[in-house]
Amino acid sequence: MSITGECFCGKINYEVSGELRDARSCHCSRCRKAFSSQASAYALVDANDFKWVTGEQHLATYESNHGFGLQFCSKCGSTLCGIFNGAVHGVTLGCVNGDPRVEISQHIFVGSKAPWELIPEGVKTFDEGPPPDGSS
Ligand SMILES: [Zn+2]
Ligand SMILES: [Zn+2]
């Protein structure tokens, strides 16, 4: 069964035929702005497994430095995916429908979290980026 996602207004829908992986939440100040939230909630996807189903013409793209960017609905503003060099790199978990069978395994850059955010006990946190071996 494929994973689906859509924006708040429902004009844009996508489908992922493979699995989401490496779900993470980044609490840095840049991600807070980009996701309009206390942190990002994001999982990687294989670009070949991803396709827009409806509403691709309503997508707007913001490209930042180093080839990374975000694509969002120009009608309602939901951020749907991240792109790298023009290809879909991952999806925002907030726009995924139902249970994508993936859990956020690490909270990164918690050292620069917003002063108003309380981190729940028991979640795996890192003050900065993930450990270099990526094994956790
Ligand atoms: Zn929308
Ligand atoms: Zn971040």
From TrEMBL:
The keyword Repeat is annotated on this UniProt entry: no
Under the heading InterPro entries, the entry gives: CENP-V/GFA, Mss4-like_sf
Keyword entries, A-Z: Lyase, Metal-binding, Zinc
Alphabetical list of Pfam families matching this protein: GFA (PF04828)
Q: CENP-V/GFA domain spans which residues?
A: 3-117
Tree of life domain: Bacteria
* Stated family: Belongs to the Gfa family.
Name of the protein: GFA family protein
Organism annotation: Parasphingorhabdus litoris
- Upper classification of the organism: Bacteria, Pseudomonadati, Pseudomonadota, Alphaproteobacteria, Sphingomonadales
